Amino acid sequence: MTRSHDLFTQAQKHIPGGVNSPVRAFKGVGGEPVYFVRGEGPYLHDADGQRYVDYVGSWGPMILGHSHPDVIKAVIDTVANGLGFGAPTEAETTMADRVCELVPSMDMVRMVNSGTEATMSAIRLARAFTGRDKILKFEGCYHGHADSLLVKAGSGALTLGVPTSPGVPVALAEHTLTVEYNNLDQVKEVFGHLGGQIATIIVEPVAGNMNCVPPAPGFLEGLRAICDEYESVLIFDEVMTGFRVALGGAQAHYGVTPDLTALGKVIGGGMPVGAFGGRREIMEMLAPLGPVYQAGTLSGNPVAMAAGLATLEGISRPGFHDELATRTRRIAEGIVERARAHDIPMTCNCVGGMFGLFFTEAEQVGNFYQVGQCNLDRFRLFFHEMLKRGVYLAPSAFEAGFVSAAHDEAAVTATLDAAENVFSEI
Ligand SMILES: Cc1ncc(COP(=O)(O)O)c(C=O)c1O
Ligand SMILES: NCC(=O)CCC(=O)O
């Protein structure tokens, strides 16, 4: 009996499933969630006094590590002046300038409160701009929980076995076309039939919600070319990859330019923030300039802007992303090496500060089908054994892992030692 167990029991009385987001519920690995009370650098501390090296990073935002002093100070300084005014503040302009500077495909940007709002609004805009209703997404990609996007979705929807959620009107789901990630031929085929009706292709430029699956060479370039040919809008959902796989996001890393970009996670530094933006002629369709409605009581909240700006400042140091990528690779490849040394077949994918671990004999994992072919039972066992040894991985085989700049030598060594210990015992 632990404090976490007691807290989870109490939580289930008035919170569905005891959690405010399904991915926290440990359904994908069994057992009960850990309740945390404090985060510090690469570590989380739970309600029972245990410390863990954290590879969830609040599902992505904590790229500088937990409780980074500059971020905390920015928040405290801002809070002293009030929590928000429902009127513009200078910090929003500073944020917009900064984002458009870091992500050159974005001429204009609007702040929202979550990644879901960002993708939902970007799609509305793409539909309005093209005058078309259909959208194309990829199986296993997750773009938040807006109705149009909860079709063959990844992340918690996949973990819980409801990739297409009940409650999404059939008439709406019909407009969402889904094809296999990294399969350009399927995209071409669908466009061959329906190209003139497709408003947008929305894609995670590195898939991070079916574990971590990078784009195959030429895939993103191919999507760009198809969108150009059919005059559809290309949306990169960089909620996860933005500011993480490179300072300019996946679009900078792979050198492919979308029309619209959705952002979240890192841009809020741990506060509830999202953003979407892109080509001026599309963005100028937004109210109050244009007819496409989109709004938010708390959008651009000054405290959230302060946390986000401090985080963007922290990651703008030259060399930041190269160091993060090197560290990420060392951790993921270090785990794989240790597994193989004990004859446990395993492979990994790494892009920037994102990684995926796969228990499989395959050399490469490049799409949703291949992720599903991995040994999920072994992942569950590995997850719990690592947890016992003080390493907190995402509680699902369908989620990417995140490394922060705070994952120092001690945290890396503790992780690799724990993995060695687990593989020598399972
Ligand atoms: C790629 C991607 N898009 C959109 C979302 C939705 O963001 P949020 O959970 O902030 O609504 C997420 C994560 O949840 C994501 O990983
Ligand atoms: N990959 C999953 C997420 O990024 C979101 C977390 C959540 O839905 O709580």
Automatic annotation (TrEMBL):
Q: In which pathway does it act?
A: Porphyrin-containing compound metabolism; protoporphyrin-IX biosynthesis; 5-aminolevulinate from L-glutamyl-tRNA(Glu): step 2/2
UniProt-recorded Gene Ontology molecular function terms:
glutamate-1-semialdehyde 2,1-aminomutase activity; pyridoxal phosphate binding; transaminase activity
Q: List-wise, which residues carry N6-(pyridoxal phosphate)lysine?
A: 265
Q: Set out the biological process GO terms recorded for this chain's protein.
A: protoporphyrinogen IX biosynthetic process
Q: Which domain of life is it from?
A: Bacteria
InterPro entries attached to this UniProt entry: 4pyrrol_synth_GluAld_NH2Trfase, Aminotrans_3, Aminotrans_3_PPA_site, PyrdxlP-dep_Trfase, PyrdxlP-dep_Trfase_major, PyrdxlP-dep_Trfase_small
What this protein catalyses is: (S)-4-amino-5-oxopentanoate = 5-aminolevulinate
> Which SUPFAM superfamilies would you find in this protein's record?
PLP-dependent transferases
Q: Does the keyword Acyltransferase apply?
A: no
Q: Into which EC class is this enzyme placed?
A: isomerase
**Name of the protein in its database record:** Glutamate-1-semialdehyde 2,1-aminomutase
Originating organism: Thiohalobacter thiocyanaticus
Source lineage: Bacteria, Pseudomonadati, Pseudomonadota, Gammaproteobacteria, Thiohalobacterales
Q: Which gene encodes it?
A: hemL
